[in-house]
Amino acid sequence: MLFSFSLKSSILLIFFFHGIIFSILLLFKGLQTENKPSLWLGVFTLLSAFYIVPFMLGYAGWYSQQPYRNILFYVPFQQLFLLPPVLFFYIKTLLDKSFQFSKKDYLHFSPALAYWVYAIIIFLTDIIVLKKAYFYEDGKDKDFSTWYQIAGLISLTYYLVESIKTYNRYRFVTYNSVSFADSVMFRWTKRFLVAFLMLIILRILFFVINPEWNEFGRKFWYYVSFSFLFYYVSISGYTNSILSSTSFKEYSLDSIIGLELETSNSNEFESSSKPHELKNEIQDLDNWKEKLETLMCNTEMYKNPELIITDLSSELGTHSKKISQVINQGFGVNFNDFINQYRIKAFLQKVQGGEHNIQTFLGLAFECGFNSKSTFNRAFKKATSLNPKEYIETHYKK
């Protein structure tokens, strides 16, 4: 029997074909440029394309006809234990390009490996040894067993939680390490996590509506929704892999992330309960605050759009952890906001001098150390509660 090009099978076939194409593009780009996020996203796209295969072929009539039926039943198309960790490691490598896959990370893929072994045992028993349907005597595809679908949903939820934790951790570290944090923390990462959440919501919704996962006629809209979701992730992720590779100097973020993650959970200076020790700590903090303020005013280091915390620590002859602690405890802000405050002050000084009448706001912002219009506008509104135009119209009326 030839492939039946019905409306349902044809729609899923389009998504399947595009999924294969984008997975090849992503994998090729990842190998060619050593871009780890592209590799992981390529694997995810490939797995997603195969995820819809059973229903695509079901609507084409293959699942109900021989010899396709017996062959397709023994192929584990829906890798529910493999998709979640792949998504998780995509997030890991997207946020930290210095991330190295270690031996313990292989444990994340042990459930998927166990399911592969299970599928191979079923195939060998039914086809090679017994030469009759023993495991598949009930005539139902094991990929749609209730236990497997529920376990896959639990796995997906667990790795979403871990991905959010990872994102929050790197977000904290980045905003305390670089002055261009808004450029480093891709908006795409947030959108991807939302897409991850939508995937879980879809699975829960359709599982509740109809837990019989092998009922082809009643699952079409779920698989179309899933297809749109992975199609969006694949295209947006491919575009992001092109943009992010040149958005900042990798050595800056990689070196700092590696350093800060090792120390972010520890505190070098513990608050003392003894009055005289507490007084010395406060005095020490004030001294460091004064050193930092003097350094920023005298050197105008904030005008460097790629300023990182190690630049300040090197100038003051200490380590980045010390500077980060002084900024957090002494000024009550993170490093990114600390530097942006000086940039905003420098911008307002130029406005007071009337430079905004002969130069654009963006041009002045670049001179003060900002690297993009969006970053400047967000920082300005955060500091003044107004956008630049509103602020100047309010405070500098002609």
TrEMBL record:
Domain (HTH araC/xylS-type): residue spans on this chain: 290-394
Membrane-crossing residue ranges in chain numbering: 6-27, 39-59, 71-91, 112-134, 146-161, 192-209, 221-243
Alphabetical list of InterPro entries matching this protein: Homeodomain-like_sf, HTH_AraC
Presence of keyword Lipid biosynthesis: no
KW DNA-binding (keyword) present: yes
Keyword terms: DNA-binding, Membrane, Transcription, Transcription regulation, Transmembrane, Transmembrane helix
Stretches of the chain forming a coiled coil according to its record: none
Protein name listed in UniProt: Helix-turn-helix domain-containing protein
Species for this entry: Flectobacillus roseus
